[in-house]
Amino acid sequence: MNLAMMELMLEGLGAFKFIGAVNGVEALAALESTPGIDIVLLDLEMPVMDGFETLIQIKADERTRDIPVIVITSDKSEIIKTLALGANDFMAKPYNPEELRLRVANHVHSKKLSDLARDMNEILESEVIKKTAALKQALHQSRLAEYEISLRLGRAAEFRDLDTGMHIRRVAEMARELAGLAGLSGEECEILCHAAPLHDVGKIGIPDQILLKPGKLEAAEFDIMKLHTEIGGKILSDAELYPILSVGQIVAQQHHERWDGTGYPRGLSGTGIHIYGRIVSIVDIFDALTSERPYKKAFPIQEAVRFMKEKRASFFDPELLDLFLAHLEKFTSIKRLYADDQSAPPALMRELHDMHLPVAAAGR
Ligand SMILES: [Fe+2]
Ligand SMILES: [Fe+2]
Known about the structure:
Layout: H1 2-10, H2 24-33, E1 40-43, H3 51-60, E2 69-73, H4 79-84, E3 89-92, H5 97-161, H6 166-181, H7 186-195, H8 208-211, H9 219-235, H10 243-254, H11 275-290, H12 301-310, H13 318-326, H14 328-337, H15 348-355
Parallel strand pairs: 1-2, 2-3
Helix pairs in contact: 2-3, 5-10, 6-7, 6-11, 6-14, 7-10, 9-10, 10-11, 11-12
The structure holds fe (ii) ion (2 copies).
């Protein structure tokens, strides 16, 4: 009878569904089976499970905790206890129907607002997660595209140079390795690896009669050969938005600078040469010296090491060279992993030309 009266009193609140339960067990079962309940009107005096226990259970379950509970009691001394257990409001019997309607309407209104705020938060959070993932994916794609461009530009330069294409892969992998040993971040190592194939991209602008000349270059020819660093720098300039191309510009411009300032094109020295330039200089020379070609034997590793040690503080950053030599095995295994296809045409001579290393010493 109480339930029927209450449903009647609540009419006038607009469209709602009333679920009656004669004890706490039924009430909890209704809450369990009916998602979206907006308010509980809870009598304390019930058989089987009373209102206190029901209240405790409603507030202990995170699925029902936020549903407002109005306790209805004839014993006002219980009010404080029910509030302490988490009741949101109370009504003393006998209650005024208008007051009941107003309190129910207020609590349901607040509940709807907090539900909305929670839903909006969830929607926003999931949108942010989705957008962040999409952004990461887009960034990854753009990095891949940049690397692809870097490899192909590098290959274009080597194609004129008749190299096998594996040299730039080895330089890339070795640059990553040495950068890691030097303590650069994973991100920097990755970008340098992807940018290193661009070191000789400027050779695209060097005339054939110089680029492809067998034997030693005359001084004037060598001056032109040196321009491949500036040409590479120009090809890759104004690419601030593209980290691989920007690092590629540094590498293209500075891979022939020497620690003692005798390099080219600018005669930079010491740490005035960007660490990317100092790293690529070491691995580029090492790979050029030790690469095997059909017309020449590979410069033996130990001989290349001896040569590089001699140039420790003249060509190379001494600390970086020490790191390189201390972990030589890592670099020789990269050489093995990215070995040349021996059927490809020879071209190491170009590499030795632009380094201005003794061609004869390299075995020809
Ligand atoms: Fe070069
Ligand atoms: Fe090279």
